[in-house]
Write a structure and sequence with these properties.
The complex is a heterotrimer of chains A (258), B (336) and C (110).
Chain A: H1 3-29, H2 38-66, H3 72-78, H4 88-91, H5 97-118, H6 124-152, H7 156-169, H8 187-191, H9 202-215, H10 237-252
Chain B: H1 9-21, H2 34-59, H3 68-93, H4 99-107, H5 124-145, H6 151-179, H7 183-202, H8 214-219, H9 227-245, E1 255-257, E2 262-264, H10 270-280, H11 284-297, H12 299-318, H13 326-335
Antiparallel strand pairs in B: 1-2
Chain C: E1 23-29, E2 37-43, H1 47-59, E3 66-71
Antiparallel strand pairs in C: 1-2, 1-3
The chains are: A mainly alpha (258), B mainly alpha (336), C alpha+beta (110).
Chain lengths: 258, 336, 110
């Protein structure tokens, strides 16, 4: 792969990793002062903080490799919906606490497998960011699992809400494991050991999630519906509102420093 | 259980007084006058409530923060506030109340929180103004509290003060950036200061002449400086800081008084203070409603956690002796 | 701003035998070579969540830190010696037991 092509591929790959973290961090911020118990305000803000750190690292690096002078803020605040590469899972509305924890479990369990492998990426920057992030998402995953178990095996009401949450969130997990090769510009990264193919993450992810759900007395949902498209910039209707809120102030003051 | 003859009322009072006199700490199981205890419960609880309610005006800008750096800083700040609330509830609980009871009193409007949080955060600059002025005023109140006579409260304050000063610096820096930015940003910063200055000055409470409980609190080592003293100190510190910021303080009467060695400042509108305190500020109803909604809405989650814990306890009781006491397990981990 | 689902605002339902999350004491050893020190308390429904919450609240997840959590009710405190202004016949617990103090409904500002 030629240098410029590699640069472009790495930039695009990191953009997706950054966007996932950025969007989920944003969603979690909506829980501030609204959590079901004050300890969760602390915990959720902690996770949000970790994720925004990951987002900044990946977006900055993406801008660097892209070589067009775009900063982390340019990328976060000046791209439009069709240029964001996050999966649809992370942009889902928070819903109730069961929905939020289900989303967190599925996504953090994915990030766990992802960052574990990327810690030995041939790209030293990706490896470094991933090594740090791996410790963080280990905690996120455990936190979500702790809650999924308690909600699933808690009261009748909490169990019912978890069933509803699983039905709503599960279909979106599929997109996490779409092969990297479906985006031609990214194909070479796996061979070069820069990126890892998400397909390879599915089995360990599934094993972990299944065991947590079993402990939670919940059944693994089956679905024939597999929404996708986020990686290619096709998002949900709610995503436009998320970006509008996130970007409005920054866009209102072009060239300003904050 | 050992039988100890109950000390006389005079003796326990004398020993309490001696500890206070020696500027030492009263700890949770020490004898204390009932009024000392109830004063502390109310003060610590209201301090805790302030941290929790304070998450709302600040949290209001999390999803609209204009840069990733500022967003991260604000997330950390809101997280710290929740943590401070928890430290303080913990301190209050050592005095024989439960956190849930304190929250009930807050939700029923029978305990208060700092009135400053009844004002709205209308622009991004408000976040910086709160950091500079509100956190600044809070620090001024809180540093003396690190030497409060009640041990758990003093220790919680030490932890809190460490984190709070960081927040104040961040707020100041944010305002500085705005003030030196575009004309529109400068105007935003000035507008925020115009709205937050007087409420911040009022954070120190009514004038000494109008503060009947202060004397007793000082005698008990709960309060170290008077309202007016702290307020004056605050103004003296803020004036030169405002100059650095390049922002004006909305008080035409601010002037250095050589004789007093302090800044003179204008008349405070105590009627506004009373009005907001009594529930008619811009955001009182909204703040409390949000707080209650979060609490009530989260009941099913808290109940689920308790139900699971009960089930687990039941399972452990009927299972083979694999049950490990928490401390035991942790000790093994620690020594590993 | 889209808000997460919440219950109705306004009236707080009366608290009968409402289950509260029990109180735990937290001991932290900040680094190797030091002993565990009491850092404070927190509420949690069980030991696992107590440990997680302690990590979030008292250590900000720094590495190399060891945490113990113990139910407050499991701690036995020493009886006061005669010199201390201290007498509590109802138990040797760390804190004043909440039921010692009954707050009448009509008391303002606690």
């Amino acid at each position: 792969m030629s240098e410029p092509l590699l640069d472009t591929a790495v930039a695009r790959y990191c953009l997706a990793l950054g966007d996932d973290a950025l969007v989920l961090s944003h969603r979690l911020c909506e829980w501030a002062a609204n959590s079901p118990v004050i300890e969760e305000d602390v915990a959720l803000m902690n996770i949000a903080l970790d994720l925004i750190g990951q987002a900044r690292s990946f977006l900055s690096y993406a801008g660097e490799r892209e070589g067009a002078g775009r900063t982390e803020d340019d990328l976060a605040y000046l791209r439009s919906e069709r240029d964001f590469c996050n999966v649809q899972l992370v942009e889902m509305a928070n819903g109730d606490f069961a929905t939020t924890m289900t989303r967190q479990l599925l996504f953090s369990a994915y990030q766990y497998e992802l960052y574990e492998r990327l810690s030995s990426s041939a790209d030293t920057q990706i490896a470094a960011i991933s090594a740090k992030a791996f410790k963080e998402v280990t905690y996120h995953r455990d936190h979500a699992a702790t809650w999924v178990v308690r909600l699933g095996d808690g009261t009748e009401e909490s169990h019912r809400r978890m069933v509803v949450a699983l039905n709503a969130v599960w279909p979106y997990a599929g997109e996490l494991f779409d092969p990297l090769g479906s985006d031609p510009s990214l194909g070479g990264l796996v061979e070069q050991h820069v990126a890892c193919d998400p397909v390879s993450l599915h089995e360990p992810w599934s094993a972990y999630v299944t065991s947590v759900l079993a402990q939670a007395t919940l059944e693994v949902t089956t679905t024939t519906w597999t929404p996708a498209g986020g990686r290619g910039g096709l998002h949900t209707e709610g995503f436009g509102y998320l970006l509008a809120e996130m970007q409005h102030l920054h866009r209102s003051f072009p060239e300003a420093t904050w | 259980m050992t039988t100890i003859a109950e000390p006389s009322a005079d003796r326990v009072q004398a020993e309490f007084d001696a500890i206070i006199e020696a500027d030492q700490r009263i700890e949770p199981r020490d004898w204390m006058p009932e009024a000392y205890r109830s004063t502390l419960v109310r003060q610590i609880a209201q301090h805790a409530h302030s941290e929790i309610i304070g998450m709302q005006p600040e949290g209001n800008w999390l999803t609209r923060a204009p840069s990733l750096k500022r967003k991260a800083i604000l997330i950390a700040k809101v997280q710290d506030e929740a943590g401070h609330g928890l430290y303080l509830y913990g301190a209050a609980e050592t005095l024989g109340v439960s956190r849930d009871d304190l929250l009930d009193l807050l939700h029923a409007g029978r305990q208060r929180y700092s009135s400053i949080f009844n004002y709205p955060t209308l622009t991004w600059a408000d976040v910086g103004a709160i950091g500079w002025l509100v956190d600044g005023a809070a620090i001024m109140n809180q540093i003396p509290l690190t030497r409060c006579s009640y041990g758990p409260y003093a220790r919680a304050m030490v932890r809190i003060c460490k984190e709070e000063s960081f927040h104040q610096r961040q707020g100041f820096e944010s305002l500085l950036t705005l003030s030196r930015g575009t004309a529109a940003q400068h105007a935003m910063a000035q507008d925020a200061v115009n709205r937050w200055w007087w409420p911040s000055v009022m954070m120190f409470g009514p004038p000494d002449s109008d503060s009947p409980h202060s004397g007793q609190s000082m005698a008990w080592g709960i309060k170290r400086f008077s309202n007016d003293e702290l307020r004056q100190r605050f103004v003296d510190i803020c004036v030169p800081q405002a100059e650095v910021l390049g922002l004006a303080l909305p008080d035409a009467d601010l002037a250095w008084n050589d004789e007093r060695g302090h800044y003179d400042f204008g008349e405070i509108d105590w009627s506004e203070f009373k009005r907001v305190l009594s529930g008619d500020g811009p955001c009182n109803r909204q703040r409390l409603a949000n707080r209650v909604a979060a609490h009530v809405g989260g009941q099913w989650v808290r109940d689920a956690a308790m139900a699971y814990a009960a089930k687990q306890a039941g399972r452990a009781a009927t299972a083979a002796p694999e049950v490990v006491v928490d401390a035991e397990e942790a000790r093994h981990d620690a020594d590993a | 701003m889209p808000t997460p689902e919440r219950g109705g605002a306004g009236v707080v339902p009366p608290s009968p035998a409402r289950q509260q999350w029990p109180l735990w004491e937290v001991f932290v050893r900040p680094r190797r070579g030091l002993s565990h020190t009491h850092t404070g308390s927190l509420h949690a429904p069980d030991a696992e969540l107590a440990l997680r919450n302690a990590r979030d609240l008292y250590t900000r997840r720094q590495e190399g830190v060891s945490i113990w959590v113990v139910r407050s009710s499991d701690i036995t405190a020493s009886a006061p010696d005669e010199k201390d202004a201290f007498f509590d016949p109802a138990g040797d617990k760390v804190y004043r037991h909440p039921t010692f103090y009954e707050i009448p409904d009509e008391v303002e500002h606690l």
